[in-house]
Amino acid sequence: xxxxxxxxxxxxxxxxxxxxxxxxxxxxxxxxxxxxxxxxxxxxxxxxxxxxxxxxxxxxxxxxxxxxxxxxxxxxxxxxxxxxxxxxxxxxxxxxxxxxxxxxxxxxxxxxxxxxxxxxxxxxxxxxxxxxxxxxxxxxxxxxxxxxxxxxxxxxxxxxxxxxxxxxxxxxxxxxxxxxxxxxxxxxxxxxxxxxxxxxxxxxxxxxxxxxxxxxxxxxxxxxxxxxxxxxxxxxxxxxxxxxxxxxxxxxxxxxxxxxxxxxxxxxxxxxxxxxxxxxxxxxxxxxxxxxxxxxxxxxxxxxxxxxxxxxxxxxxxxxxxxxxxxxxxxxxxxxxxxxxxxxxxxxxxxxxxxxxxxxxxxxxxxxxxxxxxxxxxx
Length: 379
Fold this sequence. Notes:
By secondary structure, the chain is α+β, with helices and mostly antiparallel strands.
């Protein structure tokens, strides 16, 4: 009987995945076949009974009433079994096709209303309600992704605010100390003109540092709101942009460029966003390179990947873990004087993620640091 079980299972799957109208028609056909079988069986039994009664001649009054009852049963049974079969088919149709799906969707809506987006809609069917369930699952995934992004942005903002508050404490303390010194000793005439100018110069430099901090915060806010606007562009054009940017900032450093793309192929990208990220990586490489920087561009699996390798000392263990976080610096004093506040790689990471890619930092086996920026590209 394996063939029968297999046939029944195929029929069940067909009914599950069929449209609402086809499923209703299937239930109705099954109900009609079942009622027809019951009608034929009832007609056959009652006919046999009537024949048996006819063989018992002459009729008694009881036999006449029995024959009349059997005739009435034959007349009524088609309508009776039809109504019963339709009612049973409707009951099973509502329970199996509608109630289960509506209950699943209702439960999902309750989870979403409560802010719980960790569940998954388990309804798996190809009918109209199944399509609605798939759309709701896509909506849940979108809401979950947006909620995670919102949480991540909040965490990043919290870290930025904490780092900013920590880093501005030093210049504010220095300015306060020099100001109190001048307020106390200038009226008494204990401060020479040279000392006064020196203190004012230091206060001015600390003010410049605070202004730079303010500019970095403004830049971070601008980058967070950056919207991706893609256009069709050949990879050869992107490579030429990268070459021009490298030539403009290389100084005394030698640049080696490798184009591993098919220059004539066209990709859908935001070239401005890509160049902003690549320039940040290049500037970081120029600061740490000794003699040479090597740039390699690839287009693989719908991702444009740019590798920037320098021949410097490479990343430390701490830098590999934290270099793409806001305000990370290993050489604070020197870089503060140059106006670098450790936000370049964090901005690069943010831009890569906006374009569907990522930033990876690693050390080359040949020595030196490697920064790989990738961007999702359409065709």
